[in-house]
Design goal:
single chain; 144 residues; mainly alpha; 5 helices; 0% strand; YabQ; transmembrane; transmembrane helix; Spore cortex biosynthesis protein YabQ
Length: 144
């Protein structure tokens, strides 16, 4: 096989992998959105972040392996990678990670009161120390 043709096949394979990685990255946002309610502004910020990172990574791929020129087979490869991921992997990935996240949330809620009580005990002792410190500073400065 010609060396140039091998480079093209390598780039096509890499494009398929990039398509899978891009949707995997977006699925992480989807899982996060299902576990924690987000406002529309926060969703817009996350989407903007996603597209900026995705755009830079695609540009880096094309710049590094194809001297910056956009080829149709690169776009086709990314599309095929995304299609494969969205059909074969994405539904299971999202369901499993949401289930794990809900399990963790359920158990954290169970022990939430204990965490809050421990935090309040630690915070109470800090308040006493800080109150004493500021009281001494106030007394020193104002003589009261």
């Amino acid at each position: 096989m010609d060396l140039y043709l091998l480079k093209e096949v390598w780039l096509f394979s890499l494009s398929i992998l990039y398509g899978v990685i891009i949707l995997l990255f977006y699925d992480c946002f989807r899982v996060l959105r299902r576990l924690i309610p987000h406002s529309s502004v926060m969703i817009a910020i996350q989407d903007l972040f996603f597209w900026i990172v995705t755009g830079f990574s695609i540009f880096a791929l094309l710049y590094r392996y194809n001297n910056g020129s956009i080829r149709g087979y690169c776009i086709l490869g990314m599309g095929l990678g995304m299609l494969f991921y969205s059909i074969a992997i994405s539904p299971f990935f999202v369901k499993i990670n949401v289930a794990i996240g809900n399990f963790i949330k359920k158990h954290l809620r169970k022990y939430k009161k204990d965490f809050i009580m421990i935090y309040k005990k630690k915070n109470r002792s800090r308040r006493r120390r800080s109150h004493t410190f500021f009281y001494k500073v106030k007394k020193f400065l104002y003589g009261k």
